[in-house]
Amino acid sequence: MLVLLAFIILFHITSAALLFIATIDNAWWVGEEFFADVWRVCLNATNCTEVNDTFEGYTTLQAVQATMILSTTLCCIAFLIFLFQLFRLKQGERFVLTSIIQLMSCLCVMIAASIYTDRREELHSQNQQFYPESSGGRYGYSFILAWVAFAFTFVSGMMYLILRKRK
């Protein structure tokens, strides 16, 4: 059981790290001449423009920002609750709250990545002054990490549900 708990703790910490990297790093959409995420767009790795209310579709990016921050926060809260429940609750009651919060984190990261997937082309076509026309671009590793974090938080949330009855 101790090995299982160590694996779950490591898995949860990995999920949180993936969420932090996906939220913070500037690589949701990348091209040869630019890097873009939900916070800023950088041309030639030097000329960075913060995404603000002058950016077309700013409310869409705000929704992605908010849900990614909420997902990361919920994942951290779930970990703290897991540690508290590990020592305080009796068998059968353990980890249900942790599982619910972790699955909410999973839902938030899925919503953020889905919104970005759906609205990315629209955002880039409306804001041509920020994106070079010559390079089409592709999804960056932060975007991919967001989807990997979705899978990790989902599996983690399900593991907590299964683990609740174990001794």
TrEMBL record:
Give an example GO cellular component term for this record. Answer: nucleus
Which subcellular locations apply to this protein? Apical cell membrane; Cytoplasm, Perinuclear region; Golgi apparatus membrane; Membrane raft
Asked whether the keyword Iron-sulfur is assigned, the reply is no
UniProt cross-references to InterPro entries, sorted A to Z? EMP-2, PMP-22/EMP/MP20-like, PMP22/EMP/MP20/Claudin, PMP22_EMP_MP20
Segments crossing the lipid bilayer: 63-83, 95-116, 139-163
A single Pfam family, by name? PMP22_Claudin
Where primarily located? Answer: membrane
According to the record, the signal peptide region is 1-16
Query: Which keywords belong to this entry?
Result: Cell membrane, Cytoplasm, Golgi apparatus, Membrane, Nucleus, Signal, Transmembrane, Transmembrane helix
Asked whether the UniProt record includes Transmembrane among its keywords, one would answer: yes
Q: Which GO terms describe its biological process?
A: actin filament organization; actin-mediated cell contraction; apoptotic process; bleb assembly; blood vessel endothelial cell migration; cell-matrix adhesion; early endosome to late endosome transport; embryo implantation
Q: Name one GO molecular function term.
A: protein kinase binding
Name the membrane topology term: Multi-pass membrane protein
- Complex formation: Interacts with PTK2; regulates PTK2 activation and localization. Interacts with ITGB3; regulates the levels of the heterodimer ITGA5-ITGB3 integrin surface expression. Interacts with P2RX7 (via C-terminus). Interacts with ITGB1; the interaction may be direct or indirect and ITGB1 has a heterodimer form.
What task does this protein carry out? Functions as a key regulator of cell membrane composition by regulating proteins surface expression. Also, plays a role in regulation of processes including cell migration, cell proliferation, cell contraction and cell adhesion.
Family affiliation: Belongs to the PMP-22/EMP/MP20 family.
Query: Any idea what this protein is called?
Result: Epithelial membrane protein 2
